[in-house]
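Incident log, entry 3
Record: Arf/Sar family, other (187 residues)
Problem: checksum mismatch between cached and fresh output.
Input:
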Amino acid sequence: MGQVLTGLWSIFSFKRPYKLLILGLNNAGKTSILYHLQLGHTIQTQPTLGGNTEKLTITNPSNQNTITFTCWDLGGQEQLRGAWSLYYEQTDAVLFVVDAAEPARFATAKTILHKLLTEEPELRQSILLVLANKQDLDSAASPAELMEVLELGKFKDRTWTLMGCSAATGESLNEAMNWIAESLDNR
Ligand SMILES: Nc1nc2c(ncn2[C@@H]2O[C@H](COP(=O)(O)OP(=O)(O)OP(=O)(O)O)[C@@H](O)[C@H]2O)c(=O)[nH]1
Ligand SMILES: [Mg+2]
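Fresh output:
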């Protein structure tokens, strides 16, 4: 009887996988991050021309819930960014990746990120995690520096955070996914 009830409960409490969109300028490290999360090690990447989609399953550390994500990693080259909006529908979380070692492109990254936050109705309910990637490089800006440059503090109505990470070493990638899982579970 207990098993039947548990089975029925799992049917009625079924949740669709969360949709995670991985965006950012080309060369930021989006694909490297996705596959490090999935495979647990660094892979060699090519610029993404369409998109990569992968399923990720993680355990929310605060309540041990198993959470499944459908992840979409889109190409960040300028001529490809116009197609991003085709993927916005029902996005639960945006992972916006910045190459922290390329200050010359911080202003462009900021413009694009602010546009996503202010001009895209389909992303209004999405939580946001900004990753300051390539922290393994000495020249990388710190998360605190990038926080200032990107001026995220003014987005008071949005659940967001910014973390440093490295797809080369795997530093902080699991913590990043844990933050997303906890934030979505608490929504
Ligand atoms: N040192 C270092 N290199 C990285 C890191 N993450 C990515 N890279 C390198 O940066 C380059 C671009 O990485 P990708 O993951 O392909 O970047 P992307 O954001 O997917 O780029 P597009 O697909 O063109 O949008 C590759 O040479 C990666 O090996 C990192 O954390 N540290
Ligand atoms: Mg890519």
